[in-house]
Write a structure and sequence with these properties.
Order of helices and strands: EEEEEEEEEHHHHHHHHH
Number of helices: 9
Strand content: 15-25%
Number of domains: 2
Length: 268
């Protein structure tokens, strides 16, 4: 028997068809429009477009319908009792604490990031990866210098994986922009320049531009702004374990923007 545990607040109402299957997850796309919903096992946790279930055969499910108060999965109707609220909320950040916590984030990321993460691209050995690293460094420099469109275009789609490392990095940067109080116009400039035909990247970037993210990323951002160094280390390690390198790449984007904005005095 399937048990519904959590539904992300960015899961749209409608009927869905199977898009792709993974270990412990099945992705669906909305039949009208391009909305993405991902049915995942409990261990993968909550996210903006995740539907978290227990007791599901992910190789067998084929139809999904989402209504305002219920989810119907292959004819099994389950009442929505819990919603994951994915938007980051920062309340009265401590500037001195942020400086300390960003140092903790950087150290923890270097310790916990997978070898293929964008964190280590400048040290890549192959000519191909060295070229990726060069383009990535150029894009980051442009972004942090305020050339948002050219910087985002340089990084978008770079790398490997279901969501390329460059897209994960840009999602983290967008979350950093949101948390630091960057305007919606600036965030939209990055998002529009980075938009992707990859349904997973597109959903990730659209959510991040609105300050919405998976639970480990949200917890890390809250820890950076209002937590202890130990909490930052713990949540950085948790986020780095997400995907092959997606969580670490997102954390790298978050750190890059916040480290620059803190030194410029952007966060209050």
């Amino acid at each position: 028997m399937i048990e519904l545990l959590d539904v992300g607040d960015r899961v749209e109402i409608g009927s869905y068809r199977v898009f792709s299957r993974f270990r412990g997850a099945t992705a669906f796309v909305r039949e009208e429009g391009s909305g993405l919903a991902v049915v995942v096992e409990e261990s993968k946790g909550a996210g903006p477009v995740q539907i978290v279930v227990r007791g599901c055969d992910f190789n067998a499910i084929g139809r999904l319908e989402v209504r305002p108060d219920r989810v119907i999965l292959d004819g099994a109707t389950m009442e929505i009792r819990r919603r994951y609220h994915s938007r980051v909320h920062i309340d009265g950040p401590d500037a001195a604490g942020i400086h300390r916590n960003l140092h903790a984030l950087r150290a923890a990321l270097l310790e916990s990031a997978p070898a293929r993460s964008i964190v280590f691209w400048p040290d890549s050995g192959s000519a191909f990866e060295a070229a990726l690293a060069g383009r990535f460094r150029e894009g980051v420099s442009l972004l942090l210098a305020g050339d948002l469109e050219d910087g985002a275009r340089a990084i978008a789609g770079l790398g490997f994986g279901l969501t390329p490392s460059g897209d994960d990095f840009l999602a983290g940067l967008l979350l950093g922009m949101y948390a630091a109080g960057a305007s919606r116009i600036e965030r939209r400039r990055v998002y529009q320049a980075a938009r992707s035909s990859n349904a997973f990247s597109e959903s990730l970037l659209r959510c991040a531009a609105d300050g919405c993210c998976i639970e480990p990323a949200r917890s890390l951002i809250h820890a950076v702004f209002a937590g202890t160094e130990a909490e930052v280390v713990r949540h950085t390690t948790r986020l780095s374990a997400v995907g092959a390198s997606s969580g670490a790449d997102l954390a790298a984007g978050l750190y890059s923007f916040l480290a620059r904005s803190v030194s410029s005095g952007v966060p209050a």
